[in-house]
Amino acid sequence: MPVHTVVLLPGTASDEVFVRSVFTEPLSQVGAVLNAPRVRTLSERLTALENAAASRPIVVGGVSLGAHVAAKWAVANPDRCAGLILALPAWTGAPDRAPAALAAKASAAIVASRGLETALAGTTGWLHDELSRAWRGYGDLLVPHLEEAAESPAPTLDELKTLDVPTGIAGCTDDPVHPIEIAEEWANAIPRAVLTTTTLDAYPHALGRAVQAWRQAG
C-alpha cells in the first residue's frame, strides 16, 4: 500500500491545531501522512496545496472552507490530485445566503464593531475553546479573512462531477451551519465519493470518519 501525503486545510478562521486533533489518528491508522499547514488566508491555503503537490500527486481536503478550497484546486489540477477528504462542505457554487457565509459575515461585523470577546461570548463548550484559540491566532487578519471566506465560491455541481478520484465526505445530519443536503449534493455529484455522517453530539472528532470513507471510495 503506498504512503499517501494528505494535505488538509482548516475551515473559516479555524487552524491547523484543530485539523491535527481531528485527522492525525484516523490517517495514521491507514498509513497516511498528514500535512496540516499553518494558513490564515485563502491565498495561503492555495499556496500550501501548490507547494505540497510539487513532486507528486497528493490527497487533499479540509473542513468547510478548507474542503471548498481543496476541491476547487483539484478541479483545476486533476493530474496532481490523488484523492479528496472533505468534511462539512457548506455550500455549492456561489455562497449566496448559505448559513455558513452569513455566520462568517455576522462574526466579522461583531469583531470589527464590538471586539473579539463579544463575538466569542455567544459560543460554548469545545467550540468556544477552539474559536478562542484560533481566532486569536489570526490577529488583524481575522476580520478580512471572515469577509473573504463569506464571499468565496465553492465548486459548482458541474465542477464536482469532474473529480474522478477516491473521495470521502463527512456530513452532519443536525448542523444548521453545514446542512447535510450540501454534503449529499457533493457526494451525488462526485463520481467516486462515499458519504459518512455524524451528529453534533459526536463533534468534532467524528469528522475523521471522512478518512475511512476515502479509503472505501478507493
Q: Any descriptors?
A:
10 helices; 6-stranded parallel sheet; AB_hydrolase_fold; Hydrolase_4
Estimate what percentage of residues fall within beta strands: 15-25%
What's the helical proportion of residues? 40-55%
How many helices in DSSP terms? 10
Mean pLDDT: 96
Largest beta sheet: strand ordering: 2-1-3-4-5-6
In the predicted model, the low-confidence regions spanning at least 5 consecutive residues are none
H-E string: EHEHEHEHHHHHEHEH
Task: Specify the overall morphology.
Answer: globular
Distance between the termini: 12 Å
Round the Cα radius of gyration to an integer and report it. 16 Å
Number of strands: 6
Largest sheet: 6 strands, parallel
Structural class estimated from helices and strands:
alpha/beta
Explain what the structure shows.
The protein is α/β, with parallel strands linked by helices. It contains 10 helices and 6 strands, in the order βαβαβαβαααααβαβα. It has a 6-stranded parallel beta sheet, with helices on both faces. Strand 3 (58-63), helix 3 and strand 4 (81-87) form a beta-alpha-beta unit. Helix 2 packs across helix 3 (65-76). The longest helix has 16 residues, at 99-114. It is globular. The termini are close together.
Write the layout of secondary structure elements.
Blueprint: E1 5-9, H1 16-29, E2 33-35, H2 42-52, E3 58-63, H3 65-76, E4 81-87, H4 99-114, H5 116-120, H6 125-138, H7 142-151, H8 157-160, E5 167-172, H9 180-189, E6 193-198, H10 209-217
Parallel strand pairs: 1-2, 1-3, 3-4, 4-5, 5-6
